Structure formats: structure tokens, C-alpha cells
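User: I'm putting together a teaching handout on how multi-component assemblies are represented. Below are the sequence lines for each component of a complex, exactly as they appear in our records. Could you produce the 3D structure of the whole assembly as C-alpha cells, so the students can see both representations side by side? Please keep the chain order the same as the input.
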Amino acid sequence: MTVDHAAAAERGFLAEARRPGPFGWIFSTDHKRIGLLYLWSIVTFFCVGALLGLLIRLELWAPGRTIMDAQTYNAVFTLHGVIMIFLFIIPGIPAAFGNLVMPIQIGARDVAFPRLNLLSWWLYIGGAALAVTSLFTGGGPPDTGWTFYVPFSARTTTNVSLATVAVFILGFSSILTGLNFVTTIHRLRAEGMTWTRLPLFTWSLYATAWIQILATPVLGITVALLFAERVIGTGLFDPAQGGDPIMFQHLFWIYSHPAVYIMVLPGMGVVSDIIPVFARKPAFGYKAIVVSSLAIAFAGSLVWAHHMYTSGMSDLAVMVFSLLTFIVAIPSAVKVFNWLATLYQGSILLDPPLLFALSFILLFTIGGLTGLVLGAAATDVHVHDTYFVVGHFHFTMFGGTGMAFFAAMHYWLPKFYGRMYDKTVATVAWGVIFTGFCILYLSMKIVGMMGMPRRYWDYVPEFTGLNQLATAGSWILGIGLVLMFVNLVRGVLYGKPAPANPWGGATLEWQLPSPPPTENFAHDPVVTHGPYDFRKAGIL
Amino acid sequence: MSENQEHAHIVPYRTFFLVWVALLALTAITVAVAQVNLGPLNVWAALGIATVKSTLVVAYFMHMKYEARLFKLALLAALAILAIFIGMTFLDVLYRS
Amino acid sequence: MHPQTTTQAVDTAFYVIFAICGIMLAGIAVAMIWFVWRYNRKRQPVPLSQKDHNLWLEVTWTAIPTVLVMLMFWYGWEGYLSLRRIPDDAMHIKATGRMWSWLFTYDNGRSADKLFVPVGQPVKIELLAEDVLHSFYVPAFRVKRDMVPGMVNWVWFTADKPGSFDLFCAEYCGVGHSAMVTTVEALPAAEFQAWLNAAGSTGGDPAARGLELAGQLGCLGCHSVDGSRRVGPSLKGVFGAPRAVLRSGARATVTADAAYLKRALMEPAAEIVEGYPPAMPPYTQLSEADLAALLAWLESLK
Amino acid sequence: MSGHEHQDYTGAKFGMWLFLFTEVLLFGGLFILYAVYLARYPKEFVTAGSQLNVWFGGGNTLVLLTSSLFVAVSITALRRGATGLCLRLLGGTVACAALFMLNKFFEWSAKIGHGIYPGSAHLRELPPGETVFFNIYYLTTGLHGLHVVIGAIVLIWTMALIKTGRVHANDWVILENAGLYWHLVDLIWIFIFPLYYLILH
Ligand code: HEA
Ligand code: HEA
Ligand code: CUA
Ligand SMILES: [Cu+2]
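Assistant: Of course. Below is the structure of the complete assembly, with chains in the same order as your input.
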């Protein structure tokens, strides 16, 4: 744990490739290289998705046509949703930072199935390529929304069929990551790395991976059935052929609700790892946090129909699913309280990673609490499919997982590039992002309460003021994001050398040089203390 | 990695053969039962026999009987989740007004 | 006991839930900011403790949220039940949603593309969909329910004051989704009765009858009569005007005479107006009289 | 990266099992739909179900059970050093797969000949419940058939590895995993058979 400048000057795994040039990356089975491949592909798609979000906001500046017609708008928000969900947020933290960090955190040299790991990146890229292809072929860009509800999705002439294939492949990629991680965590922990010494980030990946394995196939069959309905006319959801459109919604949400926990659990893991380091205090309630991750993963699989209160399903189902939805809130609450307790009586350094982690807590809490408004049956009837929902999920996904993703970038990139970004600029960028975020999405919640439906290209004039506020917020947010990314990329390329342990972390990755060597550990490590034992780790 | 895993249990031919005979017998039984009208019980009987058959396949052909407890727990978890998915869907389907 | 209107029933749940959430949020935000300020490394160079667990705290902050969420669940469920309990004296109206317009039919056969209701009288709306999912949403009354093909859903509400209230389609249904907007017109009881019984108001004028049909058949969901572009071309001045069309892919210019307009209605796929999607459904079920009325109406759109 | 010291048999098998779970849940989606529609259209399912030929379904059940036996025995054979026997058994399995698909081909041809196939005019004229039955029948058995083909390809690939000596008596995990996949195909058929071919009442 002594700062080793000589090692920091080396380029570690960044310099050691088995193949020359780009092939050393795209055919590498090193988990760190795959992690970086994922990271930059994901960031790229995030930027594309965010630009589409910006276009949505521009169109909604005023009622009627502003910059695009209704059909284009529908394609734009569909693409925005599909990119953000399937290409950014679901693979986001697990595939990028999970791959980079998790094997090191458990003291392994790589994941259990390195070649499968590479395959899942290729599938990710293949799925993304197909999704892009679907824009320019067939009947034009899909216009169904990311939820692909039938019968509309079965009838529309746009290229939905190809998009379902893309989603199927992306699901496959996600499954492979999940099964790789579960096996890795079970089989490759270093000596002394007991289950109660696993860093909380790794624990959260473990819980997530199980959802990936058990829920994703249901999405696979759902989109496969939609494909079959469009291509060969097996109308399993077509009322004219005896099918039930609501069954599509069940199958879709059986995956897609658990998927929101695929999105957020790793983010919670990042936050659980960052807070102790910057507060110089062990994670409070380690076991409670672990149990709550598993509880969220399990109970989160039982609440899918809360997206369907108004669909015409039975009232009994409304009651049971509403009740279970509220149960999921409890483990989330436990996590928030434990994070706060970790801060209490610590010695807190407000560096960029912590700033983003704390904004995770605040924004996710707002998102989660508005989730409770949605979980209650009566109130959801009013706000279902309005901008209130749009506000809710941007708070949880962007305010939650997105912020955690940015926190992870500020926390771990110096480790893997051996260079430090400019902390002042990062802090300013954080401030701009936070401000823009609140203006943008709080306006959405209010306009949603007033009754503005989502997926509306045009709206009644009463809603104009709040929509303009939201659009203005998106510009502020955009400026902040650009500032942040430019600063990070500059840091990676030209930053000052970063020491091995810039933040004073006690988990294993901080004991390696920055960047780590290809094989991670010269000798298999023997773990003798918990992940947040700063005294034994010599930090305090 | 360890030696004793490399030389894990080798199932004798005879066991497999007996399992196969049992599976054939169960197939015959399930066909026979289907000819009798038991009302809704027919489906449950068919599912019951199929469950017995699949248990045999999983336990012997797929060696689950000889695997570590982790494998068994994981299998149970997967099946439980599937059962929950089906069961909870029926909360809607059976009780629509 | 029983809430009078759906608005009251739902708003009670809103107040309770927002109050609990507001308090929780304020507590968390204040605690977080206070900790960050008080235990900042400048003020607190070394941590005051290394304490990492406390069973009683865990139990407490599991138990309190449990109670709170059960409370929220209960109010939510109670409010929902009110939405599902129709008063016995509710009046019956049928609502049909289709791409991208509304049709409301009353028991006496009167129909309209706006939802007229009497003030103070509960109404039960039966919800039907012709093509894809739609959703019947009136924010002012806090009611929403999807319209699903092959299924009959319903909502009820009581308008407690006269006025005009927005009625939105809240389930995405394609390019005209955001245009699938109409209003609930709440009229005092007497006025409503007068409206309901004013059958045959169009008299013998075929163009007026055509306008009524255009509302009922959903033409106005896709076509404007003021020259503005919607899903389909505007019908303003269409009669007798030259049209650039695609006939099985080949471009052609035709004059929109009666024969052309009839084809446009009966087999819209035969000629597609250039620059528009082939989205118009065929109206083959039209009677001769209705067809004539529609044509007369089209002719009247100068 | 997969140097010899990294070989982890238990890990490899565990990974395979996790993959099998995903397959189970993939089919699970179809079984959910089957259950729901059976509950909704019990009579129509019986009418439609009795039009399926028990002999085709039963015959294929025997074929798959036997193929499963072959695969199971082949592992024991390989580990006892009887490589030739192992290869012959695997060949037998692949033959069973071919037989299965042939059977399926005739069965489907007959049905399609009667105008019963997804999207057909005849199918749309049937009562809705029967249409649903045939649609889900084609989808389920079709997806299963796809798995039979994939399973057979995997087994052929494994045979090649055995021939080249990559898989042998002391390193058989690939064969074991390929076998697990094949058994899964059998396992799913064990449920398809009674649910589709044997609902006669
Ligand atoms: C990261 C993604 C994410 C996360 C984590 C969540 C978390 C939650 N979501 Fe959300 N949700 C989405 C993403 C997410 N959601 C998306 C994308 C949609 C829309 C999909 C679409 O239609 O396009 C959606 C839609 C959605 C709906 C359907 C709305 C509708 O269409 O009508 C509902 C309804 O119940 C809901 C509820 C919840 C609840 C109860 C939680 C809970 O897990 C939240 C728990 C957290 C807290 C409660 C806060 C922390 C706790 C405390 C601070 C303690 C104090 C609190 C108490 C008193 C208990 N969500
Ligand atoms: C993680 C997920 C995520 C994220 C981060 C975002 C980010 C944003 N989203 Fe969206 N959104 C979704 C997921 C997400 N969204 C989903 C799932 C839907 C539902 C879709 C559906 O209904 O099917 C949705 C829907 C949705 C709607 C509703 C559309 C409708 O219903 O009609 C709106 C409307 O304003 C919106 C806006 C935005 C905005 C303004 C941003 C902003 O955050 C964007 C801010 C970014 C910028 C202003 C651009 C900054 C520029 C760059 C980063 C590029 C830098 C480039 C270089 C340096 C080269 N989103
Ligand atoms: Cu109709 Cu949206
Ligand atoms: Cu959900």
C-alpha cells in the first residue's frame, strides 16, 4: 500500500498485448481490456442516447411541430429508450466496471470464462450494430417505444422485427456476463476471501448476475414471440386469433421490472464501496447491505405487474402486486440508512467520486419515493403513462445508476489508466450536472402530476411553461456532461500520474499498481482482513 | 482442480440402463393415464409423471445426484422462480372480472 | 364515508403518500448535508469511530419503513377500490378508441366525438378498442384505464361541476397518439338531456350529416380541415384539386373528383398521396347514403 | 488464458448449469402462455390436442429418451477408456436426433397439408382457442426442434474433439457439458409430450 511511483509510471496491462494494435484489444480475453472495451462502447452509446434526449426536449419546446414531425419523434424516443436501456444502463456498470474491478476485488487473475467474456462483448457490439441497421432498413426506424407493446408493435410497418433480433442478442450478451460472474465469484475467490469479506460492489454484482440469468431469458422469448407474430403470423397475443395482448405485458415486465434492479443494484454497489473510502469508516451494516441486495434481487422479481394497474388485469392482481412493490422499498430504505450511518462520525473528503455517490443517494431517493407514488394503486391510476413516470425513471436510472456510473469513472479510471483527471473541473462539472438534472426532471414530475401523458409529440398549451423549463434544464445538464467527459478523457490521456492508491481504499484493487499488470497478481493473494478495514490495511 | 474432482463418481452402465427402463415405463403409464377421463386431474397427473421422469433424468443422466449442494440449491432457485412467474400470472388471469 | 368523487378518493391517497415521502426525503437530505458538513475532513481529520454495525438500529430502520409503506399501500388500495366500485345509479356510455380518434355512444344511439356528461350524475364508461391499445385518461377526474382489443374495460366518475376537461389517450398508439385528444363536456343536467335528445340535429343537409359522420368515423383524427398537415393530408379544398399520387409505386397526377375520392375511401391503398404513409383504413362498410353525405361534406370544404 | 492450471471442472459444469437455467426459463415463457391459455380454453385445447398424433409424439419420446441414455453412457465409456464405444454411442445420439427431426418433418408436413400452420386461412377460421393451441404448439415444438439441431451439432463437434484427443478419459468436461445440453433437450420434451399430445379429455 505504499505509493509506488515506479510502478505507476509503467503502463501495466495497457502495454502488454498478445496481438498488435487494435487486435490486442478486440480479441483480448483479459478482463481489464474487455472492461475498457465495454466502458468506451457504453459511453459512446450513452452520448448518442443523450443527444437523442436533447432532440426530444427541443421538439417539446412548444406545442405542435418544433423541429421534427410526429413519426420522427416516435422513432427518436424509441431509439433513445432502447439505447439507454439495452446499450447503456443494463450492461453499464456490470459489464464495464464489473469486468474491470470484480476479478481483482476477489483476488483472481481473470473471470471464470475469459473467452465467453469476449464473446459477450462481441454479442453486445453485434446487437448494437443490428439495432442501428434497423434504423435504415425495412420500413424505417422502429416507432413502438422501448416497451414494444402489442398489438401496435405487431402491426406497425416500421422495422420492429430486426429490432427484436437485436434485443434478443443483447439479452444473450447480458446472460453470458451474468453466468460468468456468478461462476467467477463462486469459484475464483482468493484464499481468505470469505463471503463476508467480499467487497459490497462484488456482492451487488453477484445479486445482479442472478437476475440476469433468471429473468433475461423471459425477455428473449417475449421478443422472439413478437418476431414470430410479425414474420409468420403466430398470433399468440392477437385477440383475433384468441391471444391476449395483456399476456405480452406480463412477459415483458417479468423481465423488465427485475431489469430495473439489474440497472440499479450495481450502482448501489459502487456507492457502497465509495462511501467508506471517502469517510474513512467501514461500511456500516455490511451484512444488512448484503442481505438487502439479495432481498431486492429476489423480491424485485415478484412485482412486475405494477406496470399494469390500468391494463385491465384483475383487481386481485393489482392488490398483490402493489403490496409486494412496497415490500421492495424496505431493503432500499435499509441501504440508504446504512450509507448515511457510514458517513456519521467519519472523516469525509468531498472528492468527485463521493460527490457523485452522494448525488446518487439523494436523486435515487427522490426517484424511489416517487416510485412509491407509482406503486400505490390509486395514485398510479392518475400518473401512469404520464411525465410523472418519465420523471421517476430518469431519477432512478440517470440520477441513480447514471450518477453511480460517473462516480465509478471518477473512482476507478485513475486505477486503470494510471492518470488523474483535474479534480476542480470535475467538481464544477458535477455542480452543473446536478443543477441541470434537477431543473430538467423535477419539471417533468410536476407536468406529469398535471396530467401530461408521455410519448406525446404535441401537447395542450397549459403544459408549455414547464416543458420549456425542462428543455432549458437539458441544456444545462448537457453542458455539464460535456465538461465532465472532456475532463475525464483529458485525464486519461494527459493527466498527472496517479498513485496506486489515490483515495486510500482497502479493497484489493488498490494494492496493485496503477494500471495493474495483465495477470493482476504476481502471486495469488491471501486475504487477511475485510474490505473496509482501514486500520488493518494501514490507511488509518 | 483437486484430484478427487477429477476422479468424481463414475456412474455404472447398469444404473443408466435401469433409469432408461423406468423412463420408458413412465412414458407408457402417462399415455395410459391420458386415455382415462379424470377431468382436470388429467393435466395434473401428466405433469406429476413428467416431473418424476425429469427428476430421474436430472438426478442420474445429468449427475445432479452426485453434485455439490450449490448445484442443487441453484436448480431449486431457478425452478422456484419459474413456478412463481407462472403462479403470479394466474393472480391476474383467473380473477379478471 | 364513501368518497363522493373519484378525484377525492385518489387525492386522499396522494396527500398521505406525498406527506410521508416529503418527510422522509427532508430527513435524509438534512442528515446527509449535516454529516458532510460536520464530519468534513477539514473539521474532522480523523474519523471519530470505526463502528460498523448496530443491530438495534438495523431493526429500527427496517421496522419504521415497513409501517410507513404499509400505510401508503393501504391508502393506495382503498382509493383504487373506490375507482372500482360503481355507484348504482351510474349512467352508461360506450367509448370506442381507434387510431386516432374517440367515439362516444349513448344508450339512445346518439354518438359524438366529445364526451358529454351530466353534472352530478355518476357515469360508467365502457371502454373498447378497435385496433391497438389506447387508454382513456381524464386528469381532472383522476381516472385512467386502457382500452384493449378483445376486452371490455370500464371506468366511472362523476363530474361535480360544469366545464370542459381534457381527455387524453394515455397509451401509446402510433403516430397520431398525441392527437388523440378530446374533451369531457360536463353540462348541467337539463342541458345535457336536451343535448342527448337532440337527435337528427343535422336536418336534411348531407354536408352537415357528412361532418357528423367524419367525427364518428374518425376521419378528423387524421385529417384537418384547415390546411394543416396531420397523419393524412388536409381535406381543405381537396375536391377538384390536382393530386400527386403513387399508384402501385408509380407516380401519377390525378384530379380529385368524386370517383377519386370514393376510391380514396373504399380502397385507400390503390392511390397513396405522395409524401404520406399508407395508413388510412378502408371504409368499405359505408352505406350509399353515408358515402354520399361524406362526399358532400368533402365538397363543402373550401 | 485457459492454460492448464486454470482448468476448473466444477466451475465449468456450474457455468453450464447456469446456462441450462436460462434455457429452462426461455421455454418457461412458452409454458406460462400454455398454462394461461389452457385455463382459458380448456375445451378447445382438448379438441385441438386430440388432433395431434400420439404415435408421432410417443415415438419421438422414445427416440429422445434413448438418445439421452446413449449420451449418459458415453461419458462412462469415455472415462473408462472405451473411446470407440463412446464415439459410437455419440454417433447413435446424433442418429436419434436425425430420426427425431425426420419424424417431426412428417408430422408437420401432415398438419401443414391439412392447412394447419401459423397464419393459415384455415387456422384463422377455427375457434380462437384452437388457433391458439396450434400456434403455441408450432412455436414450442419449433423452438425445441431448433434445440435438437443445435444439440446435435454440439455433439458432433464434441466427437471431433474426442477423435483429435482434445477430450479424453482425464479431461472430459466438454463431453459432460455437451451431454448436459442434450439432456435438457430431452427434459423439455418430457413436458411437451403430455402437454400437447396427451390432452385428450
Ligand atoms: C433503475 C431503475 C429503476 C428503479 C431502481 C426503480 C425503482 C422503483 N420503481 Fe420504477 N421504473 C423504472 C425504473 C426504475 N424503478 C422505469 C424505467 C419505469 C418505466 C418503464 C416504462 O414504462 O417505460 C418504472 C416504472 C415504475 C412503475 C410503473 C409506473 C407506471 O407506468 O404507471 C412503478 C409502479 O409501481 C414503479 C415503482 C418503483 C418502486 C416502488 C421502486 C423502488 O425500488 C424504489 C425503492 C426506493 C426507495 C423507496 C427510496 C429509498 C428509501 C428511503 C429513502 C427510505 C424511506 C422510504 C420509505 C418510507 C420506505 N416504477
Ligand atoms: C439511463 C437512461 C436514460 C438517460 C440517461 C436519459 C437521458 C435523458 N432523457 Fe430519457 N428516457 C429513457 C432513458 C434515459 N433517458 C427511457 C428508457 C425513456 C422511455 C422511452 C420510451 O418511452 O419508450 C426515456 C424517455 C424520455 C422522454 C420522454 C419521451 C416521451 O415520452 O415522449 C424524454 C422527454 O423529455 C427524455 C429526455 C431525456 C433527456 C433530456 C435526457 C438527458 O439526460 C440528456 C442530457 C444530454 C444532453 C443534453 C446531451 C449532452 C451531450 C453529450 C453527452 C454528447 C457529448 C458528445 C461528445 C463529447 C462527442 N427521455
Ligand atoms: Cu390512442 Cu394513444
Ligand atoms: Cu417496475
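A couple of points students might notice: Chain A touches chain B through 20 residues (CB under 8 Å). The domain at 33-511 of chain A is CATH 1.20.210.10 (Cytochrome C Oxidase; Chain A).
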